[in-house]
């Protein structure tokens, strides 16, 4: 089933619901303390593209989440920004993939990226893009992403910190 990715008896991805937003925001505050975002951003991404928002269920609660949506290539939105819908997407943007430390190495990240790539291809988008933070470049490289160096992106990455890297994965 496309909307549900099973990993192990203890972790499983499922569609995010509005009832998950408080728990997702709490996870974000723990996993990304240097990149705070308001509740309205999480609700906005869920409204913008519900099938791009998933949570990782564990035996004792949520262990991670992903927010993703069709967007404009080389135009990462600033953090903590509510977005309006767009009409002509040119990329599938992964806004955030956040996992608690105990889930890392479980295959959860790879599983959800694979699912998102399938969804992006179904939308006939040529690539997936993201901003890598918290020294995650190597994880994303293992998922087929490459760093995109472009001076035009520097100002767009400012809210993500000095170590932020814009990355692209070709889907064609």
Shape: globular
Cα-based radius of gyration, to the nearest Å: 15 Å
CATH architecture assignment: 3-Layer(aba) Sandwich
State which percent range the strand residues make up.
25-35%
The CATH topology assignment is Aminopeptidase
* Biggest sheet features: 8 strands, mixed
- List the total number of helices: 4
- Rounded mean pLDDT score: 93
Total number of domains: 1
**How helical, in percent, are the residues?**
10-25%
Q: Which stretches are poorly predicted, pLDDT < 50 over at least 5 residues?
A: none
H/E topology pattern: EEHHEEEHEHEE
Number of strands: 8
CATH class: Alpha Beta
User: How far apart are the termini?
Assistant: 23 Å
User: What would CATH call the homologous superfamily?
Assistant: Gcn5-related N-acetyltransferase (GNAT)
Q: Structural class, from secondary structure content?
A: alpha+beta
- Provide the spatial order of strands within the biggest beta sheet: 1-2-3-4-5-6-8-7
Overview of this structure, please?
There is one protein chain. This protein has 172 residues and is of the alpha+beta class. The protein has a single domain, classed as Aminopeptidase (3-Layer(aba) Sandwich). 24% of the residues lie in helices and 27% in strands. The protein is built from 4 helices and 8 strands, in the order ββααβββαβαββ. It has helices at 21-31, 39-48, 108-122, 137-142, and strands at 5-6, 11-15, 53-58, 61-71, 91-99, 127-132, 146-147, 165-170. Strands 1-2-3-4-5-6-8-7 form an 8-stranded mixed β-sheet, with helices on both faces. Strand 3 (53-58) and strand 4 form a beta hairpin. The chain is globular and about 45 Å long. 35% of the residues are buried.
């Amino acid at each position: 089933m496309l909307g549900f990715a099973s990993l192990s008896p203890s972790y499983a991805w499922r569609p995010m619901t509005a009832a998950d937003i408080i728990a997702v925001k709490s996870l974000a505050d723990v996993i990304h303390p240097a990149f705070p975002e308001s509740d309205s951003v999480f609700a906005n991404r869920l409204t913008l593209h519900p099938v791009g928002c998933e949570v990782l269920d564990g035996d004792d609660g949520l262990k991670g989440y992903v927010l993703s949506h069709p967007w404009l290539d080389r135009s990462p939105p600033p953090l903590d920004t509510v977005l309006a819908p767009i009409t002509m997407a040119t990329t599938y943007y992964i806004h955030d993939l956040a996992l608690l430390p105990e889930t890392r190495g479980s295959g959860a990240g790879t599983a959800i990226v694979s699912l998102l790539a399938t969804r992006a291809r179904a939308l006939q988008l040529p690539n997936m893009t993201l901003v890598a933070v918290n020294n995650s470049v190597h994880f994303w490289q293992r998922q087929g992403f490459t760093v995109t160096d472009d001076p035009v992106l520097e100002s767009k990455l400012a809210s993500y910190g000095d170590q932020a890297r814009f990355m692209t994965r070709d889907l064609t």
